[in-house]
What we know:
The chain is built from 5 helices and no strands. By secondary structure, it is an all-alpha fold. It has a single domain, classed as Flagellar protein FliS (Four Helix Bundle (Hemerythrin (Met), subunit A)), CATH 1.20.120.
Amino acid sequence: MATNPYAQYNNSKILTASPAELTLMLYEGAIKFGNIAILAMKEKDIQKAHVNIIKVQRIITEFRSSLDRKYEVAKDFDNVYVYLLQRLLLANATKDPEIMEEVVQHLRSMRETWIEVMKANKGGV
Protein backbone atom coordinates (compact mmCIF):
# COMPACT_ATOMS: atom_id res chain seq x y z
CA MET A 1 0.00 0.00 0.00
CA ALA A 2 1.46 3.34 -1.07
CA THR A 3 1.74 6.07 1.53
CA ASN A 4 1.35 9.79 1.01
CA PRO A 5 4.84 11.37 0.98
CA TYR A 6 3.40 14.73 2.10
CA ALA A 7 1.74 13.10 5.13
CA GLN A 8 4.97 11.24 5.92
CA TYR A 9 6.91 14.51 5.76
CA ASN A 10 4.44 16.28 8.05
CA ASN A 11 4.47 13.39 10.51
CA SER A 12 8.27 13.42 10.54
CA LYS A 13 8.27 17.19 11.00
CA ILE A 14 6.01 16.88 14.05
CA LEU A 15 7.94 13.98 15.58
CA THR A 16 11.27 15.82 15.31
CA ALA A 17 10.04 19.28 16.35
CA SER A 18 11.11 20.91 19.58
CA PRO A 19 8.41 21.98 22.06
CA ALA A 20 8.82 25.57 20.85
CA GLU A 21 8.40 24.50 17.22
CA LEU A 22 5.32 22.45 18.15
CA THR A 23 3.80 25.52 19.79
CA LEU A 24 4.47 27.52 16.64
CA MET A 25 2.84 24.78 14.54
CA LEU A 26 -0.22 24.91 16.78
CA TYR A 27 -0.50 28.68 16.36
CA GLU A 28 -0.19 28.25 12.60
CA GLY A 29 -2.81 25.51 12.61
CA ALA A 30 -5.23 27.61 14.65
CA ILE A 31 -4.79 30.52 12.24
CA LYS A 32 -5.28 28.23 9.24
CA PHE A 33 -8.45 26.68 10.67
CA GLY A 34 -9.71 30.13 11.69
CA ASN A 35 -9.25 31.39 8.14
CA ILE A 36 -11.05 28.34 6.75
CA ALA A 37 -13.92 29.03 9.16
CA ILE A 38 -14.10 32.67 8.03
CA LEU A 39 -14.28 31.66 4.39
CA ALA A 40 -16.89 29.00 5.17
CA MET A 41 -19.01 31.57 7.02
CA LYS A 42 -18.85 33.93 4.07
CA GLU A 43 -19.87 31.07 1.78
CA LYS A 44 -22.69 30.09 4.18
CA ASP A 45 -21.15 26.63 4.70
CA ILE A 46 -22.31 26.27 8.30
CA GLN A 47 -20.95 22.75 8.86
CA LYS A 48 -17.47 23.58 7.53
CA ALA A 49 -17.36 26.73 9.67
CA HIS A 50 -18.42 24.76 12.76
CA VAL A 51 -15.84 22.00 12.22
CA ASN A 52 -12.99 24.49 11.84
CA ILE A 53 -14.04 26.64 14.79
CA ILE A 54 -14.01 23.49 16.92
CA LYS A 55 -10.46 22.78 15.71
CA VAL A 56 -9.38 26.26 16.84
CA GLN A 57 -11.10 25.72 20.19
CA ARG A 58 -9.25 22.44 20.69
CA ILE A 59 -5.89 24.07 19.99
CA ILE A 60 -6.59 26.91 22.42
CA THR A 61 -7.77 24.41 25.01
CA GLU A 62 -4.47 22.59 24.55
CA PHE A 63 -2.59 25.86 25.07
CA ARG A 64 -4.53 26.41 28.30
CA SER A 65 -3.83 22.91 29.58
CA SER A 66 -0.11 23.23 28.89
CA LEU A 67 0.38 26.50 30.77
CA ASP A 68 2.99 26.28 33.52
CA ARG A 69 0.97 27.91 36.26
CA LYS A 70 3.93 28.42 38.58
CA TYR A 71 4.72 31.55 36.55
CA GLU A 72 2.62 34.69 37.05
CA VAL A 73 2.44 35.33 33.29
CA ALA A 74 0.49 32.07 32.89
CA LYS A 75 -2.52 33.79 34.46
CA ASP A 76 -2.38 36.50 31.78
CA PHE A 77 -2.16 33.91 29.00
CA ASP A 78 -5.01 31.96 30.56
CA ASN A 79 -7.16 35.10 30.57
CA VAL A 80 -6.44 35.66 26.87
CA TYR A 81 -7.21 32.03 26.04
CA VAL A 82 -10.50 32.16 27.99
CA TYR A 83 -11.44 35.33 26.12
CA LEU A 84 -10.64 33.71 22.77
CA LEU A 85 -12.68 30.63 23.67
CA GLN A 86 -15.64 32.84 24.57
CA ARG A 87 -15.34 34.66 21.25
CA LEU A 88 -15.13 31.34 19.41
CA LEU A 89 -18.32 30.16 21.09
CA LEU A 90 -20.06 33.34 19.99
CA ALA A 91 -18.63 33.08 16.46
CA ASN A 92 -19.87 29.51 16.22
CA ALA A 93 -23.33 30.40 17.51
CA THR A 94 -23.78 33.43 15.26
CA LYS A 95 -21.53 32.42 12.34
CA ASP A 96 -20.22 36.00 12.37
CA PRO A 97 -17.00 36.20 10.32
CA GLU A 98 -15.99 39.48 12.01
CA ILE A 99 -15.73 37.73 15.37
CA MET A 100 -13.60 34.99 13.78
CA GLU A 101 -11.40 37.63 12.15
CA GLU A 102 -10.82 39.18 15.58
CA VAL A 103 -9.80 35.78 16.99
CA VAL A 104 -7.46 35.11 14.08
CA GLN A 105 -5.88 38.55 14.49
CA HIS A 106 -5.16 37.81 18.17
CA LEU A 107 -3.68 34.45 17.19
CA ARG A 108 -1.46 36.08 14.57
CA SER A 109 -0.19 38.55 17.14
CA MET A 110 0.53 35.76 19.62
CA ARG A 111 2.28 33.75 16.90
CA GLU A 112 4.51 36.71 16.03
CA THR A 113 5.37 37.17 19.70
CA TRP A 114 6.18 33.47 19.95
CA ILE A 115 8.49 33.72 16.93
CA GLU A 116 10.35 36.58 18.63
CA VAL A 117 10.69 34.50 21.82
CA MET A 118 12.08 31.61 19.78
CA LYS A 119 14.60 33.92 18.09
CA ALA A 120 15.68 35.38 21.42
CA ASN A 121 16.17 31.92 22.92
CA LYS A 122 18.32 30.80 19.99
CA GLY A 123 20.61 33.67 20.89
CA GLY A 124 21.30 32.08 24.25
CA VAL A 125 18.76 33.96 26.30
